[in-house]
Amino acid sequence: MTLSLNSSSAVSLLGFFGSIPKKVERETSIDSQVSVDESADLMNRVRSGDETALTNLIDRWKTPLFRFFHRSLRSHADSEELTQQVFIKLHGSAHRYKPTAKFSTYLFTIARNLLLDEIKRRERRPIDIVDPAELNMATPGRDPRDEIDEALKICLDRLPETHRTALLLRVQRDLSYKEIAEVMEASESVVKTWIHRARQQARKVLGDLRATS
């Protein structure tokens, strides 16, 4: 049996996205509660027509996906919308799913394609150089961790999409270089270069922050 996710059932299944907080809290690099092996099993059940399995996948992955989009787009509404679109596409392609790679690789390939479409829609042009004057965050009494978080957000905003996405998949999702290469359709050596340059930029931003504090 093949599921039919029409507009009304999509609203029913995805309506609880309002539970994502307006403020994206500080998170660890890996969401340990998400089991990739269990997710692959759930996806196989979705392919067989199990609607409960789809709901469980949404519950497991909605927050990691939202964080992935929000780190690049800095828009709650757009991140929420794209997160929903991932699951609609995931359901629509369920009959073609073959567990030949980690489920997260399959999932974030869909997510990255949607992200690229959104960036093109915005006609966003990343800037590679961070102006230290933009940091301007040494506010008396402010939590230093908040200043570091803000500096890193600025850094991510200014990175080219390839560098930013590769770094987020490595740090947030703990994907291997090989898995990131599959998601981004690039060689492992290119992915390593992107991540290396992104980390260099992050170190520069943090160095500028320390110099001005």
From TrEMBL:
<dbReference type="InterPro" id="IPR039425">
    <property type="entry name" value="RNA_pol_sigma-70-like"/>
</dbReference>
<dbReference type="InterPro" id="IPR014284">
    <property type="entry name" value="RNA_pol_sigma-70_dom"/>
</dbReference>
<dbReference type="InterPro" id="IPR013325">
    <property type="entry name" value="RNA_pol_sigma_r2"/>
</dbReference>
<dbReference type="GO" id="GO:0006352">
    <property type="term" value="P:DNA-templated transcription initiation"/>
</dbReference>
<protein>
    <recommendedName>
        <fullName>HTH luxR-type domain-containing protein</fullName>
    </recommendedName>
</protein>
<dbReference type="Pfam" id="PF08281">
    <property type="entry name" value="Sigma70_r4_2"/>
</dbReference>
<dbReference type="InterPro" id="IPR013324">
    <property type="entry name" value="RNA_pol_sigma_r3/r4-like"/>
</dbReference>
<comment type="similarity">
    <text>Belongs to the sigma-70 factor family. ECF subfamily.</text>
</comment>
<keyword id="KW-0804">Transcription</keyword>
<dbReference type="InterPro" id="IPR036388">
    <property type="entry name" value="WH-like_DNA-bd_sf"/>
</dbReference>
<keyword id="KW-0238">DNA-binding</keyword>
<feature type="domain" description="RNA polymerase sigma factor 70 region 4 type 2">
    <location>
        <begin position="155"/>
        <end position="200"/>
    </location>
</feature>
<dbReference type="Pfam" id="PF04542">
    <property type="entry name" value="Sigma70_r2"/>
</dbReference>
<feature type="domain" description="RNA polymerase sigma-70 region 2">
    <location>
        <begin position="57"/>
        <end position="125"/>
    </location>
</feature>
<keyword id="KW-0805">Transcription regulation</keyword>
<dbReference type="InterPro" id="IPR013249">
    <property type="entry name" value="RNA_pol_sigma70_r4_t2"/>
</dbReference>
<dbReference type="GO" id="GO:0003677">
    <property type="term" value="F:DNA binding"/>
</dbReference>
<keyword id="KW-0731">Sigma factor</keyword>
<dbReference type="InterPro" id="IPR007627">
    <property type="entry name" value="RNA_pol_sigma70_r2"/>
</dbReference>
<dbReference type="GO" id="GO:0016987">
    <property type="term" value="F:sigma factor activity"/>
</dbReference>
